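Model it.
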Amino acid sequence: MRFPSLDLLARHALAVLRRFPWTLAAGGVAAVAAILGSLRGADDVWGRLAFVAALGLPLTLALALLGEARGWSARTRLLALLAGVLALVAFLVIWPGVDRRHDAIRYFQLSAALHLCVAFLPFLGTDEDLGFWQYNRRLFLGFLRALVFSGVLFVGIAIALGALDKLFGVDVEFETYLRIWFVVAFVVNTWIFLAVVPERLAELRHDTEYPRALKIFAQYILTPLAFTYLVILLAYLVKIVAGGEWPSGWIGWLVASVAVTGLLGFLLVHPLRSDAGEGWIRTYARWLFIGLIPAAVMLLVAFWKRILPYGLTEPRLLGLVLGLWLLAIAVLFTVRSGTGIRTIPVTLAAVLLLTLFGPLGVTRLSTGSQSRRLARMLQPPGPGGGNPREASAALRFLMDHDAGEEIAEAIGHELPPVDWKSAPRYGDQRDSLARSILALAGASYVPEYLYEPYGWYHLSTNQPVPVAGFAWSLPVTSGDGQMRLLGSDSVAVIPGDTRRGIARFRVGNDTLAFDLLPLARRYADSISNRGGMLDVPLMLEGAEGGRRSALMLAEVNGERKGDSLTVSHWRGSLLLGK
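Modeled.
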């Protein structure tokens, strides 16, 4: 076996540069921007530029290959690449970076869509044939080879620098390793990968080569893994149906595993389906997609279980959308086994791009959902409303998304001027701003890390209340068994209902009852388990027996267990009218 000479390698590298100058330029810009962004005190724009330039790698490659496949003129290719670069510049202007989770999700969503475009864009609008599979097979193996070569190169350089540091006392900073990695990852790795991108795509339809190692990998590694995951999923399905329970949220990881391994194995052995001696492939494909149908349904139910009480967020909505896509793909390939494999990357890229911006964007739909959740949680206590902890969580979500208009609409009050771009994202300053916003709606704010779902709570207040219209004020407690006279009526606390949160009184021939649980549930989440003083009065009004009455509470104690509350003690004043 002859190894290529350095001269031959140099000529091949130059040929790659001539064929994909824009892609290599994007890699160079990403490497330089990442290095500058790693300097102490560097502007954030360098980090954003590195991320956006990294998007240029798949985008420029897909456009260059599309131009080659369509036979575009040099001028048309240049205009297409310039349009792609302008789109990246526009994204750089509007995209703030990866500091916030929803912005990071948007970036990786776009990156995944662009990488999928590399897989199918040169073949879009043409009949699917063996050439499409051969093209993607070479990209897949070329990516693995580039990853191994560049990884070994980086490790070798790192060991050499480490030897200089430890043996000769040459001070090598950690940032040096990081910057070398940027160059290797964005430039060297890209160059090695581009060297294997096939040139004459139309001729690939006549290529019947199938690496034996690929078949062994798919048949003896991916296929057993996929079926193992499917068996576990189906066993879990039997368990939840028999037990009448909801699927666990962790099931998303298992469904993702079976989808990735199963679909990858299906795609890798796709050309062998028509071989008479490879009947196992047709059996594998049929049962894979049949098994993916209940797996996708369980995934959707698990996400819907979280969405119903807590509203939409970008991860939940993406999980729901991808679950629907997986269900559609599974049903399609089950009903029509001859469906082209190009359908998989094309539809997935379309879903990711459609939900990126605009009315179907996951961020826009999530902010709308959390705005409605905030309005609902600010309603009076009752089914589905009156929960300060959930209202505070929805408000923090909207604040993190700079959704001032949605917040104002949800609370029903105009907000004071707020510079959302510079608003605090964490800590006491954010809590102070959130507390002032909820105060406009007459609600208490629950800090993110204050709520403890188990333990004792203690509510107390010393706020004044108006007593106009009442004739008597009588101090009462839950353990008070004494009977007292008010005019011609006797008054006594009826014991026995405290644990259920009911305060009952016998006033003459009337029985007065006050339900403390909605009030306790509304304010117990506003303070820590150690207790605290509320800045609102704790007052319940009643009108049983034609007599005006109210219970003005000074303190309420009880135990909290998850979402349930009990009342163990209360103290206050009973206000009675004539």
